[in-house]
Amino acid sequence: MKFFQLEPKTHANYLGVKGWAYGGRYGIERYLYTLQRVTGLGVLLYLPMHLIVTSQKLNQAGWEQVMGLVARGLLPFGEFLVFVGGVFHAFNGIRLLLTHFGFLMAQPARPIYPFTVAALKQRWAVYLVFVMTTVVVGYGAWEFLIVAHH
């Protein structure tokens, strides 16, 4: 008696690193998820530098020296980019949590043609993330570029 042998399915990674960022059929939600990863890594990499800089507060001479370095060159622009990434990461994270827990998804329905795409039911939240991020970053840019440098 011969038994049927199941062969393990293997899926070659044809996209490589591009597959990590490629949205494919998932559209803008996939790109926002990828941007969520990137901004999370950016904020995580900023944290040790921030802790090292703020630890200089214990020594007044060291603090003034470090603040002199931080206040010129490209570092203020880098801090602004961290601010932009943090704002986006926060608002998009709230959207992802609400989606994950089902608050922004459609109720399950019978799969009857024409099919409805549940992801489209939360598209308004994607646009809300863009609007809220733009408003907060715009205000932050005004504070950073206009108020703080006068």
Structure in a nutshell:
The protein has helices at residues 18-21, 28-55, 60-70, 75-100, 123-147. It is mainly alpha-helical and 150 residues long.
Task: Give structural notes.
The chain is mainly α and 150 residues long. The protein has one domain: Fumarate reductase/succinate dehydrogenase, transmembrane subunit (3 helical TM bundles of succinate and fumarate reductases, Up-down Bundle), CATH 1.20.1300. It is built from five helices and no strands. Helix 4 packs antiparallel against helix 5. The longest helix is centred in the first third of the chain and has 28 residues. It is elongated, with a radius of gyration of 23 Å.
Question: What does the secondary structure layout of this molecule look like, with pairings?
Answer:
Layout: H1 18-21, H2 28-55, H3 60-70, H4 75-100, H5 123-147
Helix pairs in contact: 2-4, 4-5
Name the helicity range.
Answer: 55-70%
Structural category is mainly alpha
The Cα radius of gyration reads 23 Å
Mean pLDDT: 83
What tags apply to this protein structure?
3 helical TM bundles of succinate and fumarate reductases; single chain; mainly alpha; 5 helices; 150 residues
